[in-house]
Structures are given as structure tokens and as C-alpha cells.
Amino acid sequence: MSKTQDLSALLSDADLFRSQGYINGKWVGATDGATFPLTNPATGAKLADMPHMPRGQVAEAIDAAKAALPAWSALTAYQRSAYLLKLHGLMEQHVQDLGTILCVENGKPLTEAKGEIAYGASFLQWNAAEGLRTYGQTIPSPFPGTRNMVIKQPIGVCGLITPWNFPNAMITRKMAPALAAGCTVVIKAPAETPLSALAMAVLCERVGIPAGVVNVVCMDKGDREAAAGLELCENPKVSKISFTGSTPVGRLLMQQSSSTLKKLSFELGGNAAFIIFDDADLETAVNGVIASKFRAAGQTCVCANRIFVHSKVYTQFANLLAEKVKAFKVGDGMTEGVTIGPLVNQRGVEKVERHVKDAVSKGAKILVGGERFTPSSASNSGSEAKETCFFQPTVIIDVDPSSYVASEETFGPLAPLFKFETDEEVIQRANSTEVGLAAYFFTKDLGRSNRVAEALEVGMVGVNTGVIAQACIPFGGVKQSGFGREGGPGGINEFQIEKLITIGGI
């Protein structure tokens, strides 16, 4: 039997640990009392029984957000900015506790989790400033005595559907611009990691954000989650959906939203190419791959999924990467020195395992890892080993282009290396996918830097770096990786409308 873990005992401020939803300023369970168990992916221990809310409570949250909208949107941009800056300050104050909650429910190492909290807080600071700069304009009219003015206004109630891999930062990246613009929000917390969303609701309550402005609903995977998405998409009181998740779910949400013609912004699946040219600094390139591929145990939408290495440096690069990966410490993220935590659930482990076995069956060789793994920190926890979700960080070489890993996003700690010969060849192979979120390459050639960056069919390119995510940049993709941008100077525009006011008789 799995043990129960007392998460509150790990926190300086135990009140940040909540296991109820947050609707209209009140902490509530499911109306019918239904719950689902939330477990620690590193140990299998139960953390809480979470509310398994029906569709009617999602509608209740939408009603609360709609009722709160007039007063919140009537505040000045400076007043809303002040709320966001106070919230930013509380996040910085509670970074240890917020990081602990994130680590225990998601699995990523504590140091990495605290880094996510800092990243999440940066969206509050950025949008507190951006909210003050939502400028309108005047447009000269061809008609005498007429003036055209364009102003920006909040779009209305926003449904925010967030993923489990960045359970804090993906909330702040959506919520901060929405609140700064004058919108109110209903957040559908991910079933795997709802505690981080609820901790943010606690902080919103503490800074005095009025009831109904921020609402958080929870439910497990399955019929009720599908019903929650349907309510957000079909309810005419919701004006905007912002979703981060898989491309198939994005297609479904887009279809479901068609009856109410909502404004949508989707950040969907990726299959990032990471290219190492023969003139690259290999030590720097290896560090770039590690930063991109193995952060969050490979469970990021922008992580390196297909690593293309020029044939001249292929063997040298593969050996350097393998040596670095061998040095990783895998285990419970709360254990000091751990650099790689578990995957979020068994489905993730099974997918990585399937990709490795398929590649090996087609001639690939394993340099490091390749198997499920139960670290001593998990096996000594009192939980059954089968309940933990670890997979060894893995490097495979001589990967055939027909392998699953070449066309499917792995979402795990698997680094497959493909060999290439020419610039034209690798650009074609990098672009031969239906998605286009991010890509990376390493080279010392300035001309190549510009040519390749412009030729890659993605929304974001990292040149000689494996890290691109920042609050100040437009984050998003092309093709079936979605549309719209989060962060950057235009991120707040996703939550606003432009209104023309034409005045005659002047």
C-alpha cells in the first residue's frame, strides 16, 4: 500500500497547501463530494484527495468571473499593476514553499522548481509594466470634421487551461497579462499538479484581488475534465480561451469553441530539432543540449527532441554528451544533489520506453541509460517501486529516421542522435514535421546563423543556446504548434480588443 505524505510539514507556511477549489473567493470541494487522489510521482505517496468538480461548478466559476468583470476592468491600469507587483513580491517571499509544492507534485528537482517560481514571478513583473502601456492611437480621417480614435479594452472572461509540466509558470504567463488587461479568469488546473495553481490562488487572495477575478477549478482526467473544457468553450460568457497542451486537444478545443467564436491562443505540441554543425564549439553545444533536453526530465514542449549532428563531429559529440549524462543524479527532487526527477506518471514512462525499444529494434545503440529506474530514495520511501515514475536519462546513437522518436514528441529524458551531411539536408529534415514550435542550432558561421534561423519553420530559434524562454519574448509556434503569443511586448494584446471611436461634427 502507498503511504500518505504530509506535504504541509515541509512548508514554512502550511496555509499555501490547499486541497479545495477556489470559486468566487471561497474554498470549495466538489458539489457532490467527489474526489480523486493526488500522488507524488517520485514516491507514489498520496498527497491529498482533490475535488473532482462537475461541469456545473465550472459554470459557477464562469458566472463569478463575469460578475467580477465590470469592477475589475473599471480599475485603472495603475491599480491593476499594483496588485500584480504585490503578487510578484509574495511569490519572491515564498519561493521555497512554492518550489517545494511544485517539486513534490510534479517531480522536478527542488532547485529547478524554485527556478520555475522565479520564472513564473517574472511574468507578473513584466505584465505589471505592460499594462501601463496598452496605448491606443488616433488615425487621420478622410472626412472633414471627423476624428478616429482607437482604444484597447479587456476582452472579458478568459478560460485558462494550463499544463502540468510547468504548473506555476504556465499559470502566471496567462493570468498576468489577462489581469493586467482588465480581464477576469477561470483557471482549469491540471489534474496531475493542481496544488501549484491553488497556492497561487492563496496569494491572490492575500494581496486582496477581489472575489471572482481569479477562480480555480479542479477535476481528474476523464469525463469531468472533458466536460470542463466543453463548458469553457461553449459558454457564451467566456470570451477567450488560452490553452497550452497537445496538438490533438488543441484541435478539439478549437472545434468546440466554434459555436461561440471565441478568441483563441494555443501553444501546442513541439518536436524541436537541435542541430550541431561541424564548426560548433562542441563543449558549449553539449551544455546546450543538456539545458534544452533534460530540463524537467525532458518534459517540456521546447526541449530538443531530434538532435542532428554533422558526421564530422558525430562520434566526438556523442561521447561528450554521454559522459555528461552519466554524471546525472536521478532521484526524488527533494533529495539534495538530484538533477533529474521522475516523469509525471506511468504513461510518460511507457512512452519513453516504447521510443527506446523501437529505435533499438531499427539499429540504434544505447550509450547511456535506456531502462526504467527506481532510485534508493524512492525504494526506501515505503511505496511500491512500480508506483514510481523514473526512467534513466538516455542517449542513443545511429537512430534510423523511420523511428518513432523522429516523428513523435517523446516528452522524456531521451536524447536521440541523428547524423547529417549538408546544411540543406538538415534544414529539410528539421522542417519535415507538422509542428513548428522551437528549434536550436550551434555554429560559429555568422552567415549560416542567419540563413538557417530564417529557413527553420518554427516560431522560436535558439542560436548557440539551449534556453530561450523569458517573460520578455513572444513565446509561440507556427504550423500545428498553434497560434498567438505569450509574453513579450505583444502578449497582453491577446487579452484585449481594439475599439474604434469615430467622432463627427468637430
UniProtKB/TrEMBL annotation:
InterPro entries: Ald_DH/histidinol_DH (IPR016161), Ald_DH_C (IPR016163), Ald_DH_CS_CYS (IPR016160), Ald_DH_CS_GLU (IPR029510), Ald_DH_N (IPR016162), Aldehyde_DH_dom (IPR015590), Aldehyde_DH_Superfamily (IPR050740)
Keyword field: Oxidoreductase
Domain Aldehyde dehydrogenase: 27-497
GO molecular function (one): succinate-semialdehyde dehydrogenase (NAD+) activity
A Pfam family that the UniProt record links to this protein: Aldedh
Active site: 267
One of the GO biological process terms: gamma-aminobutyric acid catabolic process
EC number: 1.2.1.16, 1.2.1.24
Catalytic activity: succinate semialdehyde + NADP(+) + H2O = succinate + NADPH + 2 H(+); succinate semialdehyde + NAD(+) + H2O = succinate + NADH + 2 H(+)
Residues annotated as signal peptide: none
Pathway: Amino-acid degradation; 4-aminobutanoate degradation
Any one annotated GO CC term: cytoplasm
Protein family membership: Belongs to the aldehyde dehydrogenase family.
PANTHER family: SUCCINATE-SEMIALDEHYDE DEHYDROGENASE, MITOCHONDRIAL
Protein name listed in UniProt: Succinate-semialdehyde dehydrogenase, mitochondrial
